[in-house]
Amino acid sequence: MESLNLCTSPKPLAMASVPKQEWCDPYDLNTALMEGTIFPCLNLTFHKAPAKENACKTSSSISNIEQKNREELMSSLSAVSFALNDLTLYLDTHPDCPNGTALFHQLLEQRLNLLSAFAGKFYPLTQTSMVTGHYDQKHYGWSEGPMPWEGACI
Predict the structure, then answer these.
(1) Residue 151, Ramachandran bin (φ over 0: left; ψ between -120 and 50: alpha; else beta)
(2) Is the CB of residue 118 less than 8 Å from the CB of residue 77?
(3) Is 145's pLDDT higher than 80?
(4) Do residues 79 and 33 make contact, with C-beta atoms less than 8 angstroms apart?
(5) SS3 88
(6) pTM of the full predicted structure?
(7) What crossing angle do the helices spanning 64-93 and 98-121 adopt, rounded to 10°?
């Protein structure tokens, strides 16, 4: 029986050439989240979709001030988490970059502090937040907060 090798082609389809990324000063965290990268030197705009407005429906059981505070804290947490993930991709290929390593430690500390602050004010977002956020709960339940589809916009 003749074996079929479906993973090869008789002719090469394409060859990629990817230049090595150099360090450049990163965007501020909110800009990075909006642009989709922390590195301005990688921000190659092709077809940019217009930004959408936040269509949050506030639950009647949650005060507008509490909702606003939660959303602000979650926005900060989202921006830091995105930057940390994007920087991790850079560090995968540049593990000895002192600028990247320093920023990684700074962002990681900032993310842990934000997770702790959120857990202390509202509810834990991760298992670790149950301890670091001094969340006063007698039973296990790191997912105590409302789900996004429940109107909490977080």
Answers:
(1) left
(2) yes
(3) no
(4) yes
(5) helix
(6) 0.69
(7) 160
